[in-house]
Structure formats: structure tokens, C-alpha cells
Design a protein that fits this description.
CATH architecture: 4-Layer Sandwich
Number of helices: 7
Strand order of the largest sheet: 6-5-4-3-2-1-14
Distance between the termini: 5 Å
Amino acid sequence: MRITLLGTGTSQGVPVIGCDCIVCKSHNLKDNRLRSSVMLEVDNKTLVIDTGPDFRQQMLRNNVKDLDAVLFTHHHKDHVAGMDDVRAFNHKWKKVMEIYCTRKTANALHMEFPYVFSGKKYPGIPNVNINIIDSNPFNIEGISVIPLDVLHYKMQVFGYRINNFVYLTDVSEVPDSEKEKMRGADLIILDALRKTKHVSHLSLEDAVKLLDDLKPKKALLTHISHFMGLHDEVNQDLPENIQLAYDGQQIII
């Protein structure tokens, strides 16, 4: 399995519009972050988790030629706004894009992209098939997916475990039942917004504490804001097996 970090930033991305902080002005490309998303290449299939506002740019700069399915963690704008651009794959491969999400996220997609689901469609719009999921495991063309049912403040969001890979973003609380599903992973990519506490995201300290309990072989932190600090400086203070992720980073497990 090859995992590509398409984006590792929070909802505003980094740099933030109008900000003159040291992170937003950094010349280190690892401090430049598009909105969070990840791509998996496994069993000759390509999956993407979340299509944020930067989805088109992410597909182009990673030279993605085909995409088999999209999984959504939840329906906040920074995770779904780019769904329209799956139409490029519709047109090239003459196939429907399979979408996996909860009923609540599906309802939000209908409101966000009404033209996609209209009875009277005009040529060129995205062609998608919504697969409604819940907390039960499911399959995507033979690939087993285990949903992780967690909280983003009071909102239900999903992370996913696929083989020995776990992706969990936009989370502030992980129930014990879901922690058990995360144990034994080779790689966990986990939300860590900033160093200070936040109501709907794990802080850096929260994330490290959770990972110390789960003990994956390797962990990368994502959904990072400019308040986290400079990439290289933060990584110097982290355990060897836990590091800040960066856009374009690839891991093979």
C-alpha cells in the first residue's frame, strides 16, 4: 500500500490569507499546507479520503491518472468542497465515481451540489454513486474498510482503517471501542491542530498521548494550523516514530 499525503493543513490552509506569522512566511515547503486529504493505492485501486477545496490542485501536482472511489470523513466544507472535480475521472474513464459516506454527509452533498443529483442533468456534471455507510465494516471492490466512529466536538465523524493503515482527522474524542480498532497499525495518520487545546480537534499533546497508548510502528500528524509552529522545529521535539506530516509525503507499508 502506498499512502500519499495530498494535504496536511487545517480548514484555512497554510499560509493563511493575510497572515504575516513566521509559519505563513516560511520558505520551507513543508510549512505550506493544502487542506487535509490522503490517497491510498492498494490492490491496484486508488482511493481518496476527502475532497477539500484543493482537490483539483492535489490531483494535478501528484499526477493522479485514475481514481476508483472517494471516502468522506464528514461534510464540513474543507473536506467536501472539491467533489465537483471527480468529473475529470468520469470523462476520462467513462465510469461512475463511487462515493462512501454516512447518510448525514450524503444529505449535505445533495444540498451542496444539487445539480449533481437533479433529475434533469446537463452534460458535463459529476457522475457519482453514493454508498451509504455506518459504523459497520464494508468493502470497496474487495478492499476491507473498518470505519472509526469518533467525535469532532459533538459531531459524529468517521476515520478509517484499511489493512494496517489508520486515518483519523477532525477528532477531539476517541471512544475506547474505536481505540481497539486502531491498535496494531503500521501507520496512523492523526489529527493534531496546534499546541494549545481546541474544542473540536486534538492538540499536539493530546495526539502524542493517544499514540503512546495505541503504539503504532509509525505515526504522522495532520490537519495542522499555522499555530503549531515551524515544521522542522516541532519535529525536533517529537518522538522518533511520531512526526508532523507534510504535503506530498509518501509512505509504503
